[in-house]
Write a structure and sequence with these properties.
The chain is of the alpha+beta class and about 425 residues long. The protein contains 16 helices and eleven strands.
């Protein structure tokens, strides 16, 4: 096995990958908590806590945390998604002990002081305002909300103004106690390291409430077509069209990656060529997929002038229909497989990417595959596989969302 894994007695999981030729180490503390673990009353709390962990501990102020990593010439950051939150650092190998000690201090002992909550609420509210003013980002949240209207997976990661505006010490501390427990926590590291040293540092510095992995409500996407339109006076109409996808451990996830690449994953993809290169109808057009613990999504995005919106939606639908009817060509399949392999190899030259691959897979119950195994899975995808998966995905539950100067009645016929 190319990585090492240790389960501590308290339930913490530690994974590491040793990369001898490099001098850096990337360390991440991953929590299996994101916006899907929230309710309408605390929407945005996972992301808010991510901010608050940088705001001081009993032994360090917020400024001292930043100064520590600046002095080391290190990278310190965090991110929140629908299913996990990660705090990570990338440092020289000689500073691993400091990095783990400070990350553990932040993640396990942040003060969550009311004064800091008050100021950080304003920061997050500004972040929400920026998202609302950025329709090419907001459209993806609208798409998720439309796909899962009655499940927390459809909640925006940033939360809502009315909930974030009320967050303080009491709510933040209760949420941390509930979700920042040993069973929900994975520590991943990659770079010039010794696994036993990482385990010893985690055991020494990271103290969290002991509890098993939290249960999550299952998600079921609607089988019926869904449409949502946010009427807004924009210069472009922002379009997201897609379907529920595959879960993180699904055996066909590599087939989905190939389908994604062929449809809209690069400049030679069908949608890029047809919509941008041949017709000049959009500057940005692409497809993407997301894999979650028990479900996923596949979507196409395009931004176009309002008068061209119907034409662009029809082209997207037609290109998908061509795949369903006629499949893809051997040349497209070969290009897609080589593109995916190239991106995999290039991505794994980064210690941060390798750490992320370990942590994300473990925290979402996914497989952790070696480079050879990854390449083998990609190369095994056949023409028949692509057609089969496309037909399974696009056979039901199509979702269309638009942001632009349109009324719902004006575009409702596009979903038919």
């Amino acid at each position: 096995m190319f990585y090492d894994k240790t389960m501590l007695d308290d339930g913490l999981t530690v994974l590491s990958e040793t990369i001898e030729p490099v001098r850096s180490v990337a360390i991440g503390i991953w929590f299996a908590v994101g916006s899907r673990d929230e309710g309408p009353e605390d929407a945005g709390m996972s992301h808010f806590l991510e901010h608050m962990m940088f705001k001081g501990t009993p032994t360090r102020s917020a400024a001292q945390i930043s100064e520590t990593f600046d002095r080391l010439g290190a990278e310190l950051n965090a991110f929140t998604s629908k299913e996990y939150t990660c705090y990570y650092a990338r440092v020289l190998d000689e500073h691993v002990d400091t990095a783990i000690e400070v990350l553990a201090d932040m993640a396990g002992r942040s003060l969550l002081a009311d004064e800091a909550c008050t100021s950080e609420r304003e920061v997050v509210l500004e972040e929400i305002a920026r998202l609302e003013d950025t329709p090419d980002d907001r459209i993806h949240e609208l798409f998720a909300t439309t796909m899962w209207p009655s499940h927390p997976l459809g909640l925006p990661v940033l939360g809502r103004r009315e909930t974030v505006g009320g967050f303080g010490n009491t709510a933040s501390a209760a949420y941390r106690t509930k979700h920042y427990s040993t069973g929900n926590t994975v520590i991943a590291a990659a770079g010039h390291l010794a696994h036993d040293d990482i385990v010893a540092l985690v055991r020494q510095h990271l103290s969290l409430p002991e509890a098993p992995r939290s249960e999550r409500a299952p998600v079921h996407a609607a089988d019926e077509p869904s449409l949502a339109v946010l009427e807004k006076d924009t210069e472009q109409t922002h379009i997201c069209y897609g379907v529920p996808g595959l879960y993180a451990g699904h055996e066909d996830r590599f087939v989905l990656s190939v389908l994604d690449t062929i449809l809209g994953g690069g400049m030679s993809s069908r949608l890029f060529q047809e919509i941008r290169e041949k017709r000049g109808l959009a500057y940005a057009v692409y497809s993407y997929h997301a894999l979650y613990e028990d479900t996923g999504q596949f979507a196409v995005y395009a931004g176009t002038r309002p008068g061209n919106a119907e034409q662009v939606v029809r082209i997207i639908q037609n290109e998908i229909a061509k795949v369903l009817d006629s499949g893809v060509t051997a040349d497209e399949l070969d290009r897609a497989r080589e593109s995916i392999k190239g991106h995999l190899v290039l991505g794994l030259e980064s210690t941060r990417n390798r750490m992320t691959r370990l942590g994300k897979a473990e925290v979402t119950h996914g497989e952790i595959l070696s480079m050879d195994e990854l390449v083998e899975r990609v190369e095994a995808v056949s023409l028949e596989d692509v057609t089969r998966v496309a037909r399974e995905l696009f056979g039901h539950g199509r979702v269309l969302t638009l942001i632009g100067p349109h009324g719902t009645d004006d575009v409702s016929h596009l979903l038919g």
